Amino acid sequence: MDNSIRIGHIALSFHEASAREVAKVLEAHGHQTSFKSAPHEAAFELLKNGEIDLLTSAWLPSSHEVYLNPLLDQVEKVTVLYEPYCIWGVPDYVPENAIASVDDLLSEPALTRMDRLIQGINPGAGISRFSAEMIQAYGLDKAGYEFRPGTEADCFNRFEDAVAQERWVVIPLWHPQFLHNRYTIRALKEPKGLLGTQDEATLIVRKDAKQKIGSAALAALSQLYIGNKKLSALEDALRKQAKN
Predict the structure, then answer these.
(1) Residue 6: how many CB atoms within 10 A of its CB?
(2) Fewest C-beta in 10 Å: which of 18, 78, 164, 170?
(3) CA nearest 100: which of 170, 189, 193?
């Protein structure tokens, strides 16, 4: 019997970190593993087309339910790996008594101090969809704010550069994420509730791959839990390792 398992993940480094934890469980049960990644919508297409056996992971319900729902007859949910949620955050040197809420971006001192560009990641991400909506819903565009989707590097490097210079900046982010392992990032209150709820990051398996994976490995996967704090640290270590 073929013992190779194809693990798919969304092409972001914290999804890769969780995929590696899934691989450890599978390899402990004698499987060979391989990885395939793609942007958000495309990763679910890989699952739909049978190009991967497992997907780590679907953020349900807020971010990825729209992508998973058409596939529910082909897949099963295995376990919740962590509990992600989206934020708009600011560095901890931005005083909370000055900027506590998204609404505060429309008044002083934010209008004088805050960078107007809110740099995000790719447009298919839940945080990107939510952020684009927030610009309009809060009237931030009228004050010159702009949400711009981009790459991970665009988003994260801009934040780290701003912190190095102690500039006031808003980052559209989420937990878990490696920047939380390096910095204290304070979430702004978001009274309109447009950033979604706390999701469940769910490991998804194709039904036609269950026999190949085997009951023992599936049982072990069903007990796998990583948690937000550990995954932030795992991602940070993975990124540092990639630089060496």
Answers:
(1) 18
(2) 164
(3) 189
How many CB atoms are closer than 10 A to CB 142? Answer: 10
Tell me the per-residue pLDDT of 95-121, one tens digit each, with 9 for 90 and over: 999 999 999 999 999 999 999 999 999
pTM for the full model?
0.85
Structure tokens at 53: 């056996």
- Spatial contact of 84 and 125, defined as CB atoms under 8 Å apart: no
Walk me through the domains of the chain, giving residue ranges and CATH numbers.
4-83+199-243 (3.40.190.10), 85-187 (3.40.190.100)
Place of tokens 């945080």: 127
Integer CA distances (angstroms), 26 to 14, 118, 217, 234, in order: 19, 39, 6, 18
Compute the distance between CA of residue 204 and CA of residue 96 in angstroms, rounded to an integer.
39
The model's pLDDT over 71-97, given as tens digits with 9 standing for 90+, comes to 999 999 999 999 999 999 999 999 999
Angle made by CA atoms 200, 205, 208, in degrees to the nearest 5: 160
